[in-house]
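Explain this protein:
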Amino acid sequence: MKTLVVVNPNASHGKAGKDFENSISTLIREEIGDYELHVTTCPGDAMDYVSRNSDYERIISVGGDGTLNEVVNGMIIGKSGASVGIIAIGSGNDFSRAIDLKHDYKEMVKIASGKKTREVDLLKVFYKDFGGDKSLRYAVNVIGAGFDAAITDRMNKSRFKTSGKMAYLLSFLIEYITSKTYPLSFNVDGEEVSGSFFFLTMANGNYFGGGMRIAPKALVDDGFVDVVGVSKMSKIRLLYHFPKIYRGEHLAVDTVSYRTAKNISVRSDRDVIIQMDGEVVGSLPIEVSICDRALEIASV
């Protein structure tokens, strides 16, 4: 099986590059023999390379959720029919949690190199890019608008080399002190909703932010996007309820809304940034639709 391995050496503050050289490259070669390697040099490189090289039968992504997002989008642009293997070494690794992938290199390499696969959904997203133009991109795990995206932006720009969970918490505390709610209007399968929200999350998987169970009922292959909104409350109350997200118990809070949908559009009269799979890519408005079982990934 013709295999491409895409490595983001900067993922997890450089851990991905070091661990690939020290152990992962050998483990992959022991499993599949020869493979072709592409080491990314900048944001967007994985997407560009994969889109121009669409003749592989299998692509293994070595990095975080953002690297996986670029690989998948490159495959879609290049109309690749490859399956995807995942070696999760990022700040969050939230999609790997959603598919119950153990964070053990030998185990991940064995699964990524194997022949067993499963089909998972993708989120098709139209959004406004940083140039102000309407763009199309696919999300593998989650999309967030508002407070969540602001936290992600701050975390990605942080110079502190901390774990995904700790980096998110530190960024949360800073944004918690400085941020306000966002006026959002969204249409969920024809139902109009408006209000003042801290953030709105559209999820395929059930985790974000390095292990928070933001959408505890989400399944990556159920054909629905799970929509979780946290609306206006006092900041003291927000801080009190925040730990419940790690346990997936926040849906019981009266200011948290939950829906499932096939389609959702979101707009605001303010400039509200969005994050997609842990990377800030643009801003509202967005239109999201589910693509049933559109991606083939290596599985247990």
Observations:
- The first strand starts at residue 3 and ends at 7.
